[in-house]
Amino acid sequence: MSQDNLVKLQCTDCRSINYQSQRNKKKLKDKLELKKFCNTCRNHTQHKEVK
């Protein structure tokens, strides 16, 4: 994975960083939001992109 396209995904409930993903920053201007499984919450929650 290229480092410039790599983003971290943080759980909106418990604020833990669980996933890393890629995003094309030239095509997608807004921040990435995905519904993923959080091991800390033990539930499917919304995950948002952080720095």
From TrEMBL:
Record-given protein name: Large ribosomal subunit protein bL33
UniProt superkingdom: Bacteria
UniProt entry keywords in alphabetical sequence: Ribonucleoprotein, Ribosomal protein
GO cellular component, one term: ribonucleoprotein complex
Swiss-Prot/TrEMBL GO biological process terms: translation
GO MF entry, a single one: structural constituent of ribosome
Positions in coiled-coil regions: none
SUPFAM superfamilies noted in UniProt: Zn-binding ribosomal proteins (SSF57829)
Keyword Ribonucleoprotein in annotation: yes
Family affiliation: Belongs to the bacterial ribosomal protein bL33 family.
A Pfam family this chain is assigned to: Ribosomal_L33
InterPro entries: Ribosomal_bL33, Ribosomal_bL33_sf, Ribosomal_zn-bd
